[in-house]
Design a protein that fits this description.
Length: about 350
């Protein structure tokens, strides 16, 4: 993994050295002895794995990560070194790692027990990252950073909300430098044109309004329910689209306002046992585009309960095949078939 980060940095550094070409030795395992990178026959126009533009954008993003508390406000100290870095933690806290890279050094830190036994609190940002930055402070400092590979980047208009290429429905657009290979991406798929009533609190269309009523088009940023569930807590300005006026929703509308949080794809579920040998429960959860809204739950055709705001259900189904059905107040249905395994 440390070699991968070093290769990422070499790709950016060599972009200006070789006028946009790539050296075959850019991507390699660590070497104790220097490798020759001056032979022109080793150059190629196509990237081996990652283009210089994509590598530079990745390093720019990794530099913005929040450093450990011991490195807080590092930008305000002239002695601080810029670094692109990342951490990781294995399942069960068996080990933790942190890797950092700048134009001069790549440092990889691994923390853990030789026998793989886990330890609570053995996480990358607390166990490995402080050691990473402590080691970097012992090495010679440098004032230069990776040079932007302008030849492998293209400035385009992007949607401020979605980050995708801007469409004519995106009200807020930014000029963004993106790798040349990503210009084939789709334009924004999250801004949709809705038609609202004068108050802006109902969706309507030409077929269900009076001849004298005005229809107001609106470009609306609309995420799928599951994405909105995680997006909205940190973006309070995000609003779900208004509901359809009663009797106005098109019969052909295939929009599903509900999505599963858990289980998303699982078809076989094992219910764990508690410390005293008792079977615990399975937590089923879904999210709805509008809140609060009533959702009626049914298991194997039998009504269970109704939830109104936080749509979470704790069940202890018997081993075997089951079908869970959720119906909202407008009749939208969401079903899940699953098997409980001993």
């Amino acid at each position: 993994m440390t070699a991968w980060y070093a290769s990422l940095a070499r790709t950016v550094i060599d972009a200006s050295r070789w006028q946009g070409q790539y050296h075959r030795n850019n991507w390699r395992r660590p070497h104790y002895l220097p490798l020759s990178t001056s032979h022109p026959d080793s150059l190629r126009k196509a990237p081996l794995h990652v283009s210089a533009g994509a590598a530079w954008k990745t390093l720019q993003a990794l530099e913005q990560l929040q450093r450990p508390s011991s490195e807080g406000d590092w930008q305000n100290f002239t002695s601080s070194q810029r670094m692109a870095w990342k951490t990781g933690t294995s399942f069960g806290f068996r080990d933790a790692w942190s890797i950092g890279v700048d134009p001069n050094y790549t440092i990889g830190i691994w923390v853990g027990n030789a026998d793989g036994e886990g330890r609570p609190g053995l996480v990358g940002v607390r166990a490995a990252a402080p050691l990473l930055f402590a080691i970097r402070r012992l090495l010679p400092n440098s004032n230069h950073w990776f040079t932007k590979p302008a030849g492998d980047l293209n400035v385009v208009q992007t949607c401020k909300q979605s980050g995708q290429l801007a469409s004519d429905r995106c009200p807020d657009q930014l000029q963004t430098a993106i790798p040349l290979t990503t210009t084939r991406s789709k334009k924004c798929t999250f801004h949709q044109q809705l038609f609202l009533n004068a108050a802006g609190d109902q969706r309507i269309h030409q077929g269900c309004i009076s001849p004298t009523e005005d229809v107001f088009p609106s470009s609306w940023f609309q995420l799928p329910p599951l994405q909105a569930h995680y997006y909205q807590p940190t973006h309070p300005e995000y609003l779900a689209p208004p509901p359809w006026r009663e009797g106005c929703a098109p019969a052909s509308s295939s929009h599903q306002p509900m999505q599963w949080i858990y289980p998303v794809r699982a078809e076989r579920i094992t219910i764990p046992k508690t410390w005293d040998g008792q079977r615990s429960a399975v937590i089923f959860a879904l999210t709805h585009q509008r809140s609060p809204v009533a959702i009626h739950w049914h298991l194997d055709g039998e009504f269970i309960t109704t939830t109104f705001d936080r749509h979470t259900l704790e069940l202890q189904p018997e081993p075997g095949q089951h079908a869970l059905l959720a119906i909202d107040a407008e009749g939208n249905r969401l079903s899940k078939s699953f098997e409980i395994v001993e």
